[in-house]
Design brief:
Strand content: 5-15%
Structural class: alpha/beta
Largest sheet: 6 strands, parallel
Strand order of the largest sheet: 2-1-3-4-5-6
Helix content: 40-55%
Number of strands: 6
Number of helices: 11
Shape: globular
Radius of gyration: 18 Å
Length: about 210
């Protein structure tokens, strides 16, 4: 049997932590190895327990979830960070991306999003709540110049449309009957043609401009 995914949860609201536990306990492949009510204890748990994934609230006493993520990055700790938040503000989201956070999930969406998020992050993908995606589209009305899209082939445009639906390379490959390697090559070509850099840049571009594809 495959090893279980080891998680820690950090949120200063006891009832909310228990809600997360209830959701996660439905999946036998996931194990909660620690809980914390503040950012300082969360960082200690990450250092001591070495979980695969840390689920952190942004707003906590002491270190915030983003503060913990910043220390994890500076100390190069091998843990993937999932941020849980009530905030839809672009400023928080942008800061999270700069810290290479793997997932940004709204608390209002965890009942539907959390298990899928954990599995996607464990597989090395990124995850953004659909409500945030819609919010970003509203906040970024500027459409790409038509010349940008003209640089792309029809196949690349089709892949970009699927990326905007938050689909992984594996899911896109299955849908288009292509290999994952082919999809990854297309993704790299799209990034090069559009001048996109960074692990989140293509996903953000696709989400922000999906109304024009």
């Amino acid at each position: 049997m495959a090893d279980k995914l080891k998680l820690i949860i950090a949120d200063d609201h006891h009832i909310f932590r228990k809600g997360i536990l209830s959701i996660v306990s439905e999946d036998e492949s996931i194990e909660i190895t620690g809980e914390a009510a503040n950012g300082d204890d969360a960082l200690k748990l990450i250092e001591e327990m070495k979980p695969d994934i840390a689920i952190l609230d942004i707003d906590m006493p002491g270190l915030s979830g983003l503060d913990v993520a910043r220390k994890v990055k500076s100390e190069k700790l091998p843990v993937k960070i999932v941020i849980l938040t009530i905030h839809k503000d672009k400023e928080y989201f942008d800061e999270a991306l700069e810290l290479d956070i793997k997932a940004y999930v709204l608390k209002e969406s965890i009942a539907n999003d959390l298990i899928d998020c954990i599995k996607r992050v464990a597989a090395g993908d990124y995850y953004i709540s659909s409500a945030i995606s819609g919010y970003l589209v509203e906040k970024n009305k500027t459409a790409p110049k038509q010349t940008e899209l003209d640089k792309l082939t029809n196949a690349e445009k089709e892949i970009l449309k699927l990326i905007a639906q938050n689909k992984t390379s594996a899911q896109i490959a299955d849908e288009l009957f292509r290999s994952v390697r082919t999809i990854e090559n297309h993704r790299n070509n799209i990034c090069n043609k559009l001048g996109l850099k960074g692990p989140h840049a293509l996903l953000l571009y696709a989400i922000q401009h999906k109304s024009v594809f």
